[in-house]
């Protein structure tokens, strides 16, 4: 089987990763995430018209009734209209919006209405951030325990890389970041870690087995050996995610986008970021075989 | 011999799979939309003839009845179409009147032999069947205020009984301050009340204008009040939701001061909110005499006539909390009234107060605790401020003709529906603390149906794509992996049904994702086998080595994903929790099917036989 020289190209890959990360962080810093209702609080009403209405008319209708800041957009088809209100006037605002939009000529059906208090949103935002950090921390401890701390560091940076890139793309294109997207990101952490650990597992096995000391070569072999598996698993996962993206409906559209981005970034990062980082932080055979090291020291004793 | 399992291992796998199939089966029988009729009054049992007439009435209106069954005092009518449920309820409500409650229901359609094994289908989340989700916040500041007011009034009673003169009371955030004319009065008062109100810290304050006593509500007391208030509210809301007649409602505490209410199938949020969130209560008070000191008098308006008002005593005879039952009826002029029964304490309080006050007027006061939300600018940011206020209005003012017992009726209500609402609220008990809506989601039934269809479609397509991929890549072994994948889906559904997990849209997404990732273990094993074969290992050894060596990778990879899923479960709410549950169950079942089941299949078919070449 042909061996691909992954480690030889690692500088190019690093450059790509760093570039992506910088763009992502830039987008996050300057544009910011377009946080969904779950996190900001506010009101959202989705209605279905019999005939497609003119959006400008709806905006002026709402504006006349005191909802000047209403965002009106189509959702899925042109008959489905989504109205967002940043502030929460009172609890019945959903019903009132439907009342304003409904007319004899073009009746509306309420598809869904959501109202989230600002306090709940704030709390959820803090909780989610904590959850994500906790997930990363727990995973790092597990990897350090099962492998070695240098592996944990590599895994952590590679997961951070994936998360930052997904968040960055969501910020860059102004995609709605809601609770389901957060769930998707946590799933990506699990998935990408899965990938990384399979590669690490093989690296550990090969370091213990082989006699050569050229880490880059061992890494290359390991990645090549696991490449078929990586591609097969990413392939099946991407297939089902595409099914979800095209057929799953509007409510989990962004969820599937986040997962698709995550699978692609996760596959790339477990090969390049996670493995190549081990080279950068100078993983050595002794790191994995501590007992041998102790024996060496004993022999030096007089 | 290589690649042979002992018999017990095959049997064990077989049993697990069998149990899985049995508990997954009920999901093939979706629940029927139904209406449940039960009689509220005694002696009005339903009979078969009546039920037949009711179903006939439904058929006449074009509603398809699937089946109707009579069970003692209640009856269940199953319908064909879910969207005719509400229409059917309205028709039956008209026909039956007040003596019966008609509730929407989802009737189990699981065959008896499965139900006998307590196998039940998965519950569908709100996003799949439509309905309302409320997150209620218990307003603790207002609860503390109410408790302070009640205590202040009780202290005033004691001071008056003991003839200790006080000048003024003032209620702060957590404090009550009494002003006395002299230090002696203050000290006497302190000695008197300190033992009776242990929830407070006491402090003397001496100013220029006399002596004051400040009572501060202790931290423990606030905690205890919070627990009490939330639990009491839970009970009350549960009672109310049960009266609404919703099938499978959920009322649950979330965190220290929040309550989640989920009402599947409910579309009329306004009515649901009016009942769930209502903080209405009643107070019975005497009208003030002309010589009553000003500080004991409160002037209130009538509810149905803003211009009319009356001067009432501040002290309350009895509140609605002492109502043991309440029902709506009509007087001889067909005006709505509410019949009230008081409990033992309430009854004796009422008779004591009325016996000595015959000839005076007594008022029934309607109280509603409300909150106003308004946004203010604070440090350049919009902040929501909540302000609690209480609306009091007199419903009726009537002369006490004779001593009242524990049974009487209230008239003077605006409409018959108001009487019904008031009776319901009095029956279900009042809220111990005001609540407000922190979050609300309404999902229309069309969106629910659409979500289910799209979800199922994407599961099917995803499954098909993965099956084709595995066949193309691993040929005969692909068949094994696909059988394992199918069984994995069965086990996952069975596990979710057994745990009573709720299926949500993100849950379906979790299933789809699990399907994609479930083959990972098989892929790892098969790739390893291929590798060993390339390294010229004999076929049977290669299979053995493939399973053996891939094992640690599979376990390590899955445990980390499981850890993340557990964290997701603990921080997530509602739909996200559903996703975490399916993800973690999927990891466990996929490890079982990919490692044990696929190994068993391979062992059973080609294990132990001399093989030259395997088709992988």
Structure description:
The complex is a heterodimer of chains A (302) and B (616). Chain A has helices at 10-30, 37-40, 55-64, 93-101, 118-146, 149-172, 179-209, 215-247, 253-280, 285-288, 290-300; strands spanning 34-35, 42-49, 71-75, 77-85, 108-116, 176-177. Chain A has 302 residues and is of the alpha+beta class. In chain A, the strands form two sheets. A four-stranded antiparallel beta sheet of chain A has the order 3-4-2-5. A two-stranded parallel sheet of chain A has the order 1-6. The model of chain A is unreliable at 292-302 (pLDDT under 50). Chain B has four domains: 7-27 and 446-606, Up-down Bundle (Multidrug efflux transporter AcrB transmembrane fold), CATH 1.20.1640.10; 32-107, Alpha-Beta Plaits; 140-221, Alpha-Beta Plaits (2-Layer Sandwich); 279-415 and 422-439, Gyrase A, domain 2 (2-Layer Sandwich). In chain B, 48% of the residues lie in helices and 27% in strands. Chain B has helices spanning 7-24, 48-60, 85-96, 112-116, 126-129, 140-161, 183-194, 219-244, 269-277, 344-355, 416-428, 445-498, 505-534, 539-571, 574-606; strands spanning 32-39, 65-71, 74-79, 100-107, 123-124, 131-138, 166-171, 175-180, 200-207, 210-217, 250-254, 258-264, 280-286, 297-301, 309-313, 318-319, 323-330, 336-342, 361-378, 381-399, 407-410, 435-443, 502-503. In chain B, the strands form seven sheets. In chain B, strands 2-3-1-4 form a four-stranded antiparallel beta sheet, covered by helices on one side. Chain B has a four-stranded antiparallel beta sheet with strand order 11-12-6-22. Chains A and B meet through strand 5, helix 5, helix 7, helix 8 and helix 9 of A and helix 9, strand 20, strand 22, helix 12 and helix 13 of B.
């Amino acid at each position: 089987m042909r061996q691909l020289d992954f480690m030889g190209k690692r500088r190019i890959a690093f450059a790509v990763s760093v570039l992506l990360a910088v763009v992502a962080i830039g987008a996050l810093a300057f544009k910011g995430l377009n946080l969904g209702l779950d996190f900001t609080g506010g009101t959202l009403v989705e209605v279905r018209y019999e005939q497609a209405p003119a959006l400008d008319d709806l905006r002026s209708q709402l504006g006349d009734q005191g909802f000047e800041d209403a965002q009106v957009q189509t959702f899925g088809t042109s008959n489905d209209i989504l109205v967002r209100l940043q502030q929460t006037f009172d609890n019945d605002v959903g019903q009132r919006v439907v009342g304003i939009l409904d007319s004899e000529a073009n009746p509306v059906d309420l598809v869904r209405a959501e109202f989230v208090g600002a306090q709940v949103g704030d709390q959820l935002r803090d909780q989610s951030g904590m959850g994500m950090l906790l997930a990363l921390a727990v995973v790092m401890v597990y990897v350090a325990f099962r492998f070695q701390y240098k592996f944990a560091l590599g895994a952590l940076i590679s997961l951070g890389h994936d998360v930052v890139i997904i968040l960055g793309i969501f910020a860059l294109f102004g995609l709605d970041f809601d609770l389901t997207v957060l769930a998707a990101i946590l799933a990506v952490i699990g998935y990408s870690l899965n990938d990384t650990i399979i590669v690490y597992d093989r690296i550990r096995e090969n370091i213990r087995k082989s006699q050569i000391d050229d880490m880059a070569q061992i890494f290359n072999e390991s990645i090549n050996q696991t490449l078929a598996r990586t591609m097969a698993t990413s392939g099946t996962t991407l297939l089902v995610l595409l099914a979800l993206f095209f057929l799953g409906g509007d409510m989990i559209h962004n969820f599937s986008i986040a997962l698709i981005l995550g699978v692609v970034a996760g596959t790339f990062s477990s090969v390049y970021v996670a493995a190549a980082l081990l080279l950068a932080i100078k993983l050595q055979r002794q790191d994995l075989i501590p007992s041998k090291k102790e024996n060496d020291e004993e022999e030096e004793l007089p | 011999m290589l690649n042979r399992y002992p018999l017990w291992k095959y049997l064990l796998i077989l049993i697990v799979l069998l149990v899985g199939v049995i508990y997954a089966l009920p999901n093939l029988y979706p629940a029927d939309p139904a209406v449940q009729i039960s009689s509220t009054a005694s002696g009005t049992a339903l009979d078969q003839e009546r039920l037949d007439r009711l179903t006939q009435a439904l058929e006449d209106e074009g509603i398809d009845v699937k089946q109707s069954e009579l069970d003692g005092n209640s009856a269940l009518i199953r319908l064909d179409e879910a969207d005719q449920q509400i229409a059917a309820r309205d028709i039956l409500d008209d026909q039956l009147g007040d003596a019966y409650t008609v509730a929407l229901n989802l009737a189990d359609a699981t065959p008896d032999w499965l139900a006998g094994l307590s196998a039940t289908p998965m519950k569908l989340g709100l996003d799949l069947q439509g309905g309302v989700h409320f997150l209620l916040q218990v307003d603790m500041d207002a609860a503390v205020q109410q408790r302070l007011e009640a205590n202040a009034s009780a202290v005033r009673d004691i001071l008056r009984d003991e003839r200790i003169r006080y000048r003024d009371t003032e209620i702060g955030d957590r404090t009550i301050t009494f002003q006395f004319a002299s230090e002696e009065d203050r000290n006497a008062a302190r000695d008197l009340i300190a033992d009776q109100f242990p929830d407070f810290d006491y402090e003397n304050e001496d100013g220029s204008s006399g002596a004051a006593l400040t009572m501060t509500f202790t931290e423990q007391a606030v905690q205890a009040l919070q627990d009490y208030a939330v639990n009491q509210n839970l009970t009350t809301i549960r009672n109310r939701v049960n009266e609404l007649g919703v099938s499978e409602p959920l009322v649950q505490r979330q965190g220290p001061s929040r309550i989640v209410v989920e009402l599947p199938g409910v579309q009329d949020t306004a009515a649901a909110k009016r009942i769930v969130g209502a903080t209405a209560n009643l107070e019975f008070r005497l009208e003030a005499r002309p010589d009553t000191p000003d500080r004991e008098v409160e002037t209130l308006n009538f509810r149905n006539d803003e211009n009319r008002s009356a001067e009432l005593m501040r002290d309350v005879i009895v509140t609605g909390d002492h109502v043991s039952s309440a029902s709506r009826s009509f007087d001889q002029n067909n005006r709505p009234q509410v019949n009230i029964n008081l409990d033992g304490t309430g009854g004796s309080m009422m008779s004591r107060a009325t016996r000595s006050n015959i000839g005076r007027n007594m008022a029934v006061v309607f109280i509603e605790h409300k909150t106003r939300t308004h946004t203010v600018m604070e440090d350049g940011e919009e902040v929501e401020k909540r302000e609690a206020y209480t609306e009091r209005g007199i419903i009726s003012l009537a002369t006490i003709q004779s001593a009242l017992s524990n049974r009487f009726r209230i008239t003077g209500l605006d409409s018959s529906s108001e009487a019904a609402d008031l009776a319901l609220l009095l029956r279900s008990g009042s809220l111990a603390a005001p609540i407000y809506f922190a979050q609300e989601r309404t999902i229309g039934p069309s969106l629910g149906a659409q979500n289910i269809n799209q979800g199922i479609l994407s599961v099917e397509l995803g499954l098909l794509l993965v099956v084709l991929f595995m066949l193309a890549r691993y040929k005969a072994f692909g068949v094994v992996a696909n059988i394992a994948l199918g069984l994995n889906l069965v086990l996952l559904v069975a596990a979710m049904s057994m745990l009573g997990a709720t299926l949500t849209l993100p849950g379906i997404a979790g299933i789809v994702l699990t399907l994609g990732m479930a083959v990972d273990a098989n892929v790892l094993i098969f790739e390893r086998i291929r590798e060993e074969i390339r390294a010229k290992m004999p076929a049977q050894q290669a299979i053995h080595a493939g399973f053996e060596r891939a094992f640690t990778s599979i376990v390590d990879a899955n445990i980390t994903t499981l850890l993340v899923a557990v964290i997701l479960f603990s921080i997530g709410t509602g739909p996200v929790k559903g996703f975490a549950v399916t993800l973690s169950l999927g990891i466990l079942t996929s490890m079982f099917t990919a490692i044990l089941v696929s190994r068993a299949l391979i062992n059973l078919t080609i294990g132990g036989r001399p093989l030259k070449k395997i088709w992988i």
